[in-house]
Amino acid sequence: MSDTWGLIDRHETVERIEGGDQVVATRSLLTLTHAETDVSWLEEFLVRLAMEHACRDVRELAVTCIGHSARINGRVSDDAVYRSLRQFLADDRLVARALNALSDIDAFTGRHWTSAEWILLQLSAMRVRLKHGDLKFWQS
User: Fold this and answer.
1) pLDDT, tens digit, for every residue of 58-91?
2) Were both Cys, which of 28, 38, 76, 77 would link to 16 (CB 3.0–4.6 Å)?
3) Distance CA 53, CA 21 (A)
4) Which stretches within the chain are classed as H helix?
5) HEC profile for 21-54?
């Protein structure tokens, strides 16, 4: 794999992510997130990894990379991403990563008041933050 962003082979990188070596998988996942230009494909892949990958660290990083993709590309391609993040908020292992990804989406793509899925995600995030005693989110 090249160290130069944008000069990677998607197929080879996906194979490394889906392989058994955690370090190779996480590094390859970060490389793919930064280099992939097909945002829709990347988001679908990240959601699938977050739900299905055998390694917990890769699942957690996949959720984080959803936020990275929004930051890098300045957009979220589909409401399915919001539905997935809402699902991740219900998973104690992924909740912190999902909140972080949501924060990136808000900061780098704007607030999406025309999307019912985005609004439901925001409400779910507020509920989670209140449950954990985080009242500072009201200030944002």
Assistant:
1) 999 999 999 999 999 999 988 889 999 999 988 8
2) 28
3) 12
4) 10-18, 22-35, 39-52, 56-73, 80-89, 95-109, 116-131
5) CHHHHHHHHHHHHHHCCCHHHHHHHHHHHHHHCC
Distance CA 105, CA 25 (A): 24
| Cβ neighbour number for residue 94 with a 10 Å cutoff | 22
* Residue 81: both structure tokens together: 């991403």
Contacts of 100 (CB under 8 A, 6+ apart): 64, 67
Token pair 């955690």 is found at 22
Give me the torsion for CA of 116, 60, 31, 40, rounded to 10°. -20
Three-state secondary structure call for residue 108: helix
List Cβ neighbours of 34 (8 Å cut-off, separation of 6 or more). 5, 68, 72
What is the distance between the alpha carbons of residues 95 and 85, in angstroms, rounded to a whole number? 9
pLDDT digits (tens, 9 = 90+) for 99-137: 899 889 988 987 676 778 888 888 888 888 788 776 665
Task: Name the one residue in this structure whose structure tokens are 């699938």.
Answer: 48
